[in-house]
Design goal:
The protein has 150 residues and is an alpha+beta fold. The chain is built from 2 helices and 8 strands, in the order H-E-E-E-E-H-E-E-E-E.
Length: 150
């Protein structure tokens, strides 16, 4: 019987060690997921159209949406719109009054929030079938998206 007691103690010790390793791995995964959620996670969405409804008639515009699903806020430093022959600064080409055209740049986008801009794209050549939207963020990230005309 004394050999049986040491066998039971060895098995119990092994079970405790395996449980400790599993708990440690679980906490490492949780910490990694938590750190990814804490930093800014900004996504860019855009639409390029000749048919934006305005009180004075239709307008050619690029509508830009940024959403930050992270917890940390970040700065939106600049918005640039490129076509084959044209480059627009999104801050100077906002379409409409400030409350409907989007905030002036640079500005901050908070965690779990969205910002919208309506950019006047009338300087872009009429035959352009797509534009590229480039946004520079304050934490060093640059977002870029090629947007076909709708």
């Amino acid at each position: 019987m004394p050999g049986m007691t040491s066998l039971i103690l060895s098995i119990a010790s092994l079970v405790v060690a395996v449980a400790a390793v599993m708990i440690s791995l679980s906490q490492t995964r949780l910490a990694k997921r938590e750190s990814q959620r804490a930093r800014p996670n900004v996504a860019l969405h855009a639409v390029f159209t000749d048919h934006l409804a305005r009180p004075e008639g239709r307008a050619r515009a690029v509508c830009v949406s940024l959403s930050n699903t992270g917890r940390e806020d970040t700065e939106v430093a600049s918005i640039w719109i490129y076509s084959e022959r044209t480059m627009l600064n999104g801050n100077h080409a906002r379409l409409g009054a400030d409350d409907e055209a989007g905030p002036a740049l640079p500005c901050r986008i908070g965690g779990h929030s969205q910002l919208y801009w309506t950019i006047d794209a009338s300087p872009i050549e009429a035959e352009a079938s797509k534009v590229t939207v480039v946004i520079k963020l304050g934490h060093g990230e640059t977002l870029s998206k090629e947007v076909p005309k709708m």
